[in-house]
Amino acid sequence: MSTLVAKSQHRWVGLALRRRWAPAAPPPAISTLPSEPVVPSKQPFKAELQGGKRYSWCTCGHSKKQPFCDGAHKFKARGLSPLRFLPEKDATVWLCGCKYTNNPPYCDGTHKQDFVVSAALYEPTDS
Ligand code: FES
């Protein structure tokens, strides 16, 4: 019986020491969730596209060359990247400016929904 008590006390001391000397909890992980796009325009952009030419449509809303990408996502919206597309033929289209279309890169009327209408309009800055 005394051997059993001694073993259990030894185990308790061992656990107490491990807790005391255990390393601190790791720092909280940085979120890897993609950024949400900002709303640079509440209207679509009319664009005359050339067939066979490659375009990069801005998905983050931070570009100063709307509706096209200028690389701003690399610094302001990590996790988002431009949508690259290649029209088959010349066409005049309406490219989404609110960045919430369900048919990217084309406007589908989502900009008329309340969450876009009431959203703050993004103004690009130099920083
Ligand atoms: S401008 Fe985005 S859906 Fe029309």
UniProtKB/TrEMBL annotation:
The organism's superkingdom is given as: Eukaryota
A molecular function annotated in GO for this UniProt entry is:
2 iron, 2 sulfur cluster binding
**Domain Iron-binding zinc finger CDGSH type residue range list:** 42-79, 80-117
Which PANTHER family does its entry note?
Answer: CDGSH IRON SULFUR DOMAIN PROTEIN HOMOLOG, CDGSH IRON-SULFUR DOMAIN-CONTAINING PROTEIN 3, MITOCHONDRIAL
Instruction: Tell me the keywords, alphabetical order.
Output: 2Fe-2S, Iron, Iron-sulfur, Metal-binding
InterPro entries named among the record's database cross-references: CISD, FeS-contain_CDGSH-typ, MitoNEET_CISD
What is the protein's name according to its record?
CDGSH iron-sulfur domain-containing protein 3, mitochondrial
Q: Which gene encodes it?
A: LOC114852406
Identify the cofactor(s): [2Fe-2S] cluster
Q: Which GO terms describe its cellular component?
A: mitochondrion
